[in-house]
Amino acid sequence: MRSSYIITTSLGDYYMTVKMFSGDQKIKLTQLINEGMQVLHEIDTLNEGLSDTVKAIAEELEVKPSVLKKAIRVAHKASLTQTNADNEELNTILETVGKTL
To answer: What pLDDT was estimated at residue 20?
Structure first.
């Protein structure tokens, strides 16, 4: 169900179509939004905890937290082979332009 409106401004007329939702659709949307917000809040909480843990272990091992975070992402995605290939290509480019240490 859609309703059309004409909005008049100093810049001219604009036509806007607004979708109207039924009662059942509204219930589903409300439930989805509420559950989605709860999931995102839980993800934020878990990410904060992981970040604190990474920082503590990085300090203990004298490693940059970013290195540990990258190791976690690579392990999670099971993408070590691709990461190595990307790094080889990066190394080749830097060697080509003489920008290696």
So the answer is: 83
